[in-house]
Amino acid sequence: MRALARLALLAWAVATLLAAGWALSQHPFAAPLTERGLSEARAALIRATAAQASPDWLIPRIEAALQADDHPMLQVLSDLARDQGTVLPAALDARLREALSPGAWRMMGDCGACMMDVTQCPSLTLVAACTLPFELSPAGDAAALMRQGHAWAAGGDPDGIEAALATLGLAATAGTLATAGQSLHLKTAATTLRVARRADALSPGMSRALVRAARGPDPARALGGIAGDLQRIAGRTSPAEVLPILRLADDPAQLRALARLSDAAGPDTTRVLTVLGKARALRLMHRLTDMAMLAAGLIALVIGQVAALIGAAAQMALRRALRPAPVRRVPPPLRYNATALISRP
Fold this sequence. Notes:
Elements: H1 2-25, E1 33-35, H2 38-52, H3 55-68, H4 71-84, H5 90-99, H6 104-116, H7 124-135, H8 138-153, H9 160-174, H10 183-198, H11 204-215, H12 219-222, H13 224-236, H14 239-246, H15 252-265, H16 269-276, H17 278-283, E2 286-288, H18 290-322, H19 338-343
Antiparallel strand pairs: 1-2
């Protein structure tokens, strides 16, 4: 029976080693991650958001947003506390309600400041809500061209990128009938990027990509992918949330990833990004492939078997080292009978 057990263990170790070799030959770690399905990703995002947004996490951030007078952040955190069923301290809850119910005059004043000068707008949400409606009209593109023409006539340094985007927006508006409305996506993207650039809402990587697209031989084609991603984000969230989400994108590829995140999270996209952060939220959109999980399990099994073999060998060596040395038995000395020797003939 002992020999049969040893044979079975040897066969299991060989089979595991062969299976691990086959799995590694499929290159499972060349692309170990795969995109989750949208429903699976949404469930993972909701679970992670609910686990993270505990009262200990939520209350200090509400206090910080109150001190900074960050109205959009306060709205997100207030909605999150309500949906999570988090009971806030009475004093903090009163301050939060007061901050979220500003007077109409203040709202009109902030919106007017945004429309007059987008760089003086208190938040990107107000930029999108107050400035974009005008900028999306042909008058907005015309005003941008006039502004750059004024700068050139005064001997200043006109912004060629803004002029190119405004021209592209006017061309897309003029081609609306010819393209059955398809060029409106391009118009929306060009205007959003133009406003985001003025509001300093573009990362350095997105700014460089925008410059390359606007100065390229075919700006409309170069901006097509960005236009589609912005349209997806606006459709899943709201136009007011596009600029804050756009600000998080380091390059067009990450903007595409954020667009897919908005496909999964929908109206909760801003909430998910606020609670989890960009990096963690985007990681949750992926999972390990089945082949990578199988290979990792087989490798762990082989390592476990090798460790068990090394441990058994070390135990045997230790037993031999600690075994007491055998005692050598010394034979007794020979005794001679002198009388018998003398009497022997």
